[in-house]
Structure formats: structure tokens, C-alpha cells
Amino acid sequence: MITSSEAQDRCAQIIDLAIQAGADAADAVASASSSENVSVRLGKLEEVERSEGEEIGLRLFVGQRSASVSTSDFSKASLQEMAERAIAMARLAPEDEYSGLAPQDRLLTGAAPDLDLSDASEPTPSQLKDLALETEDAGRAVGGVTNSGGGSASFGRSVVALATSHGFSGGYEATHSSLSASLIAGEGETMQRDYDFRTARHAADLPQADTVGQTAGERAVARLNPAGLPSGTMPVVFDPRVGGSLIGHLLGAISGAAVARKSSFMIGRLEDAIFGENIRICDEPHRQRGLRSKPFDAEGLPTSARDIVAVGRVTGWLLNSASARQLGLAPTGHAARSGSGSPGISASNVHMCAGTCSRDDLIGDIQDGVLVTELIGQGVNGITGDYSRGASGFRISGGKLAEPVSEFTIAGNLIDMFAALIPADDLEMYRAINVPTLRVDGMTIAGE
């Protein structure tokens, strides 16, 4: 696989060709990746997959018109043809007054921070197989587990590079290691399935394989014999593995693209106290070994930590250069892209700071409520904030977790939900979006 410096050289080459072909400005993104995944089921090897790929994407501008193309053929003749084709496409495109490269005076200068994203060691296929078997075996050993959806272990390595015609060039390498297991409990129509999945930049940061498998098995068994849930209004507690989705809806609503299109429920609310005063949500692109850590954004701007929410208030929009121009603001270093095409917008490693009460105390005064461990469907309106999703989990009765429940819907409005949200103190930092257990009172349940 190519190195980061080689990927930057490719970007510089295609940009030079684009300028020679008549582009006024251009940027290029080169990427390369390799991954290996080993899957087992019922103690036997099921599949070994290896994939490798390299790509370069070019975006160029002719005045206020732009076009994007990509290729996996890196010969000079192919790159020359690609640049000429992009020029022809751009000349036919409509003008966009907001298009263009990032402001030159805001580009990252100097050395990019080292975020320790690449693991020097690489497991062999045999080692991945052993890890997958250990993961599944631990799950199958849990009492009540009757079948398996399989276990897997994987490792991947990637390179990303970006260059622009107005002075930026940078790149970095990253790895990921993953373990997963899916287990089945019960028989026939009573069967229940659950899983556990962990991924990290460095294999040393993963939990033990048997821990992942055991967790998956215990989760499957705990779901056996679910009851229904009566309709009504009650407190809903979100387990951390689903609670991060609430923050994901917020991130979508404060994306500059959504705001510029006037398709966000957050428009007109920047001055409002959306959450309680104790709520703080942070974006940390420079977290060492973070799953979404990056030294610069997809336009060459430096990334930096910021509070997305402080003292209960959203601190501002997440902006790439195009949305910043539309809104008359400065870009915030949140441009994101893969391959060809214009940059989108994305946060990096996000977490909600922990609260002050334990998970048990958070649940302890709920006489009748529900802990949600799985969400189903996409019933969220980004314009109004209306929220309605299928769910399953465990009933809360008398301040304690009770029987599993399934086939019910939770509904509300995200603005009301954010205002009512209470975090526990059990924050763990291993996902892309990390939250503690979250409680939201007054949600509507549609059940039996």
C-alpha cells in the first residue's frame, strides 16, 4: 500500500494537470486501504476476506463552476484524461457563488499533530482466526445461548492525503482492529439475538476477546421472553449504546448545510438553553487514538477541540467553507469527504460529559418506565425535531430493572427531550459518539 507521502505526491500531480488543463483552482483527495476479516460460526472457520483499494478524487473550479471526478487508474495518461474531462464537465455546470476552496489564510500551516492513529503491529490471518474463535466460544458458553450468528476479528490500515492548488498538502495513516460476536438464545419463535462489537485504532485498546463474546451472549439471554409495554407517558432511559444517536440528531441539526437550507429544527435557537445548565458536549478531533481523530479537515483547515454545547447552549454551527459563505460566517474545520465530490460536514470524536449520579440512582426513583437498549427505524424529522422510533429493552418497575420488553414505540420532540435529559456518571470513551446512560422523562409510549 502507498505511503502518506506518496499519496500526497499523487494529489500534487493531478492538481498540476488540472491547472494545465485550464482549471482556476483544484483540490485532490487520495486514499488507500487494506483490510482483513476472519469470520467463524459454531467453532468453524466460515470466511476469510481481504480487500485492498486505492483511489484519487479531483475537484476543480472554472470560475464559479465546479466538477468532481475520481479514478483508480494512476497512469499519467489516465490522470490527464480525468483532468480534461473534469474541465469539460465544469464548463457545463451551473455557477455556484458559494463554491471554492477554503480561505487560504485559514489553511493548516506547519506540522500536523501526531494523533497516534496507526498501530505498527499487524495480526496474521491465523491470529485473527484465534481471536474470532475465542470471541464466539465465550458467547456460546453462556447459559441459555442456543445458537450463534458467528464471531469475527478484523484489522485494517488506511492512508488519506489532501492537497490544494493554493498551498496545502497533508496526509496521515490510520489502522483499526475489531472484534464482534452475535449470539442467539432460545428456540423457535422464542429466539432472541444480540451482539457486542468493539473497534479501536490499536489492538491493545480492545477488551479481551472473551469479554466481547460473553457480553453478546448475556445480552441475548437477557432478552428472552419479552413482554409488551402499555401505552402511556413514562420516563425513558437510554443505554449508552443507543443514547449516542440522540447526539447524532443534534449534530445533524447544527450542520451548516442543514441550517443554510433552512431544514433544521435548531434554526433560531442558538441563544436558547436547549439542555440543562449542567450539560456539556465536546468535539475532540485531536484525541489520541480516537476513532474519528484527524489533524486537518477535508479542506485543509486545522481541526481543534471545542464545546458543541456549553452550559446547556449550542455554541454555534458546524461549517465547511461553502456553508460558511452561505451563512456569512467563518468555516469551523468540520469539512468531511471521501473520494470525489464536494465536502460535507462532520464532527469528530464527540462525547457528553458525565453527570453526577450513578446509573442505579438515575433509575432508582422511576416507578414505571423503560430502559431502551435497541432502537429501530429512522423516524426522526430533522426539520421539526419530531421523534418516533421502534424500541426494545427492559421495563423499569419500582426503581429496578424488570422483564425484557419489545415491540413498542417511543415518541417525543427532540427539543423537549434535550431539555429533559439527565446524564448518569457512567461515561465510557470507546465509541465515535460517547454518552453516559441518559434519562428523558415524559416520553410517549405506544405499546399494547
Automatic annotation (TrEMBL):
InterPro entries hit by this protein: Metalloprtase-TldD/E_C, Metalloprtase-TldD/E_cen_dom, Metalloprtase-TldD/E_N, PmbA, TldD/PmbA_N, TldD/PmbA_sf
Domain of life: Bacteria
Pfam families: PmbA_TldD_1st (PF01523), PmbA_TldD_2nd (PF19290), PmbA_TldD_3rd (PF19289)
Protein's GO biological process: proteolysis
GO molecular function annotation: metallopeptidase activity
Domain Metalloprotease TldD/E C-terminal: 231-447
GO cellular component entries: cytosol
Domain Metalloprotease TldD/E central: 120-224
Residue ranges constituting the Metalloprotease TldD/E N-terminal domain according to the UniProt record: 26-90
Family the entry assigns: Belongs to the peptidase U62 family.
Protein name, per record: TldD/PmbA family protein
Native species: Pontixanthobacter luteolus
Source taxonomy: Bacteria, Pseudomonadati, Pseudomonadota, Alphaproteobacteria, Sphingomonadales
